[in-house]
Each structure stands twice: as C-alpha cells, then as structure tokens.
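Sync notes, pocket subgroup
Present: LS, DG
LS reminded everyone that the earlier model was apo-only. Rerun requested with iron/sulfur cluster included. Inputs:
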Amino acid sequence: MTLQLHISVPAWHTRAACAKTEDKEVFFPTGNSPNQRAAKRICERCPRSVRAQCLVEAMTRDEQFGVWGGLSRGERVRLAKKFKQEPPVSAKEAA
Ligand code: SF4
C-alpha cells in the first residue's frame, strides 16, 4: 500500500528568507534567547510582502510558538490585543 501526500505550500514560502537558511531551529527558541534575535535578523531580510503574509498566517491560526513575520509569540499577542482595542483602518475607510 502506498500513501500519497499532497501538501500545498503557499507561493510566498518560496521567497521566504528563512527558506534559504540552514539553521531553522533559531525560529523556535526557548525564552528570550539570543537565537530569537537571530531569527528576527533573518526576518528583516525577508521581502516585506512575504513578512506580512507570514505574520497574518501565524496570527490567523494563533501560532503558539516561534518567530513569525519578525515577531515573537509575546509580540504577536500584544499586537492582536491592540487590534482588538483599535481595529486597523481598512483601505476603503482610509480613502
Ligand atoms: S518573516 Fe516569516 S517567512 Fe520571512 S524569514 Fe521570517 S519567519 Fe520566514
């Protein structure tokens, strides 16, 4: 019996800076270790649109661990609270 898995990877993943790094473990450090800063430095090299999509994906599924879109879990929680208190203005409202 053969099991076939079809996993779709969003297109933005192929442009991600972390996709080109060998040390993926820096994205899932424990505590506020220097590795978290290493991950954030890699995120700074990521294209802005990719970084935004990465952050949205992590926040949409309430990702519990790791650095996503350049933000730690704690930073994402604070950002989500801020959006709840003060929802971002949509492009339509801003026009
Ligand atoms: S922003 Fe997301 S996709 Fe880009 S390097 Fe950081 S974790 Fe990877």
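DG: The helical segments are 34-44, 48-60, 73-85, 91-94.
LS: The CA atoms of residues 5 and 60 lie 24 Å apart.
Action: DG to write up.
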